[in-house]
Specification:
Blueprint lengths: L2 H13 L7 H8 L3 H10 L1 H7 L5 H8 L5 H7 L1 H6 L13 H7 L1 H4 L5 H9 L8 H11 L1 H9 L13 H18 L7 E3 L5 E6 L2 E7 L6 E2 L7 E6 L8 E7 L1 E2 L6 H13 L2 E3 L7 E4 L20 E2 L12 E3 L5 E3 H5 L2 H8 L4 H13 L2
Parallel strand pairs: 4-10
Antiparallel strand pairs: 1-2, 2-3, 3-6, 5-6, 7-9, 8-12, 9-11
Length: 365
Amino acid sequence: MEKEEIISIISYRVDHHRIVPYFFDSLYEDAKDSATVTEAIKEQFESILASCFSCNFSSILEELSCYDDMYSYIINHIPTILKYFHGDFLRLSSFPIQEYVNNHFSELIPSIPKDCFFYMAISDDYVKGENKKMLNQFLTNYKKDYVFFLLGQMLSLSYSMEQLDTLTDVLVLIVDELLEHEELSYCDIRMLMGGAYSDCVEIGSKVLKVGDERYTYFMKNNPFIVSPLIRVDLNELSFLRGTVEVIEKVDTNISITDDELYEIYKQFRLMGLIWLDAKVENVGRLLKDNTIHYKKTLYPDSITRGLLGGENEIVLKKGDYVVCDLDHIVFEDVFQHDSKLQQDFYLSNAYYYEERYQKSKIKNG
């Protein structure tokens, strides 16, 4: 094939967003002269980048790097690639991207998308040395965008950025206050793996969660849940269906036995509650006594945080286990009147603990 024909094939693929892995492999195989294919790819390189879907971006670049001098060409065009980057590209070990970023950090600031820096910020120790100060200033300058990047992904599946604008402003205020309390900066925020319904960040000793509407908001105040500093049902304040929570960080790298997990389940049952999602992933070990540790009073009364009843007489101590996911803890009478909830529960792993609890009640009279 002549170069014009190869360019025509690439252009067609670009126009129809059909640049996929192994396309270039087949292109090189069909052409008699690989150098001609390489020339055509170089001429169309930026268009190729612009048309790639995020799921294919990195694999296509790795595929291209195997041919002729394309590896060195890619290295020399990292700034161009970063203009169109997708998150996983930064973590590719095939190319010295991190080294390039740190050697040219200040030059990249005006030329690549904000999200590129956001991904760098959540990648542990990606930006090094003096560059961290510049990164922190960048994140501070664009803190509303960064907070939305960290905490707006789950709700953005249901609402537009415009609909979430006021909430994002509120989240920025919360983040700023937590950073001040913890004596940290935007660079120190750690993104955590959220659950199925929430985005989570760690700010020092605090965890901030923002997510979709919880199955249940109000629950009985009890010592076996991590005490929330903030717990807000957004539907009570706006048209948004969701929840904002701030809780103490707990150690989730635990090895809890089945008997210990059952003991937590049993304590809920003795208080007239059913823990519908009883599993290890929802439990943590307290790093501090289970009280509110904060310089300022955020939401002093329990009812504002969705907790019914008075203060707990028992305060669990550092090292004790607590439930750190406050969803799916319901009153027994609510459970008894919800057939759909019962059906789901009877098919869940948590039902094993309910069976064990009922057998224990019969045995003990």
